[in-house]
From TrEMBL:
Residues 7-25 have a biased composition (Low complexity). The lineage of its organism: Bacteria, Bacillati, Actinomycetota, Actinomycetes, Micrococcales. It comes from the Bacteria. It comes from Promicromonospora iranensis. Residues 1-29 are annotated as: Disordered. Its main location: membrane. SUPFAM superfamilies: MetI-like. This is NitT/TauT family transport system permease protein.
Length: 293
């Protein structure tokens, strides 16, 4: 009788699979994030560089008179020579923009909550909000100057009026986009209205609300500058009027660049805030901060 020995199928303990180390599940390192950021941002940088080269070429070849399109060097010299004055006026416009944007965000979200939770308020206020939006804000600016004087108040109010509408619309759309089954389940479990709003409605509305805030923050810059056009002795809008009246093209271009920088920086700050508040949303997955740039 021949006996056969069964082959051992169990591998030695030294060759058994081991659980993955915690390091393998970690997020990408800082270096990999930097490389990802560079890979995502080189295209807009290349476009900006191409526009700068085109601007320099037009000025160098004098294809357009210098009093219409100054050279980049002349604009840079103006910014360096008048940096103290430009910095002071930039700070005034930035402060007006930030205050107006914050007020528009707070009032807009509160109004959206009122419209969503009250059918009567929606029927009463929504047509008035729409009517106020279609009125050209440049037509309201002189009235605000008459009411509030030549200080910062009319500029802030105009920034609020321009930035208010996108905040309200996005917040209302976001609050109404919440899954009704979640609201029914919350009511079945005995959650209060405040707890349902804090735990379900508001977090669910954040993606659309943040989109509205990014639009509003750029419009707030427009509102502040338009208010400075009508009546002001400080701010980038005031500098723009002076440069235009004196046909000072380098100062005019320097002022426009600073206005654009204010809007870009504030937009980026809202973008970073969005990433911090809703990292779980599908629109944020796989993105890096400032990748939109």
């Amino acid at each position: 009788m021949v006996t056969t020995q069964e082959t051992r199928a169990t591998p030695p303990s030294s060759h058994r699979s081991r659980p993955a180390s915690p390091a393998s599940a970690d997020e990408p390192s800082l270096g990999s994030r930097a490389l990802t950021l560079l890979s995502e941002s080189w295209r807009p940088v290349a476009v900006l560089l191409a526009l700068f080269v085109a601007w320099w070429f037009v000025a160098w070849r004098e294809l357009v008179p210098a009093y219409l399109v100054p050279s980049p060097g002349a604009v840079a010299e103006t910014m360096v020579a008048d940096w103290a004055i430009l910095l002071e006026h930039t700070w005034v416009t930035t402060l007006e923009t930030i205050v107006g944007f914050v007020l528009a965000a707070v009032i807009g979200v509160a109004t959206a909550v009122l419209l969503v939770y009250s059918r009567t308020a929606e029927k009463s206020l929504y047509p008035l909000i729409l009517f106020a939006q279609v009125i050209p804000k440049i037509a309201i600016a002189p009235i605000l100057v008459v009411w509030f004087g030549f200080g910062m108040t009319p500029k802030i109010v105009l920034a609020v009026l321009i930035a208010f509408f996108p905040v309200v619309i996005s917040a209302v759309a976001g609050l109404r986009s919440v899954d009704p089954e979640l609201l029914e389940m919350s009511a079945t479990m005995g959650a209060s209205r405040w707890k349902t709003f804090r735990k379900i409605r508001f977090p669910g509305a954040l993606p659309q609300l943040m989109s509205g805030l990014k639009v509003a923050v750029t419009l707030a810059v427009v509102g502040a500058v338009v208010g400075e056009f009508v009546g002001a002795d400080r701010g980038l809008g005031y500098v723009l009027l002076l440069a235009s009246g004196n046909l000072d093209a380098p100062l005019l271009f320097a002022d426009l660049i600073l206005m654009s920088l204010i809007g870009v920086v504030l937009f980026v700050l809202v973008e970073v805030l969005e990433r911090l508040l809703i990292p779980w949303h599908a629109s944020r997955r796989g993105n890096v901060a400032l990748a939109a740039l």
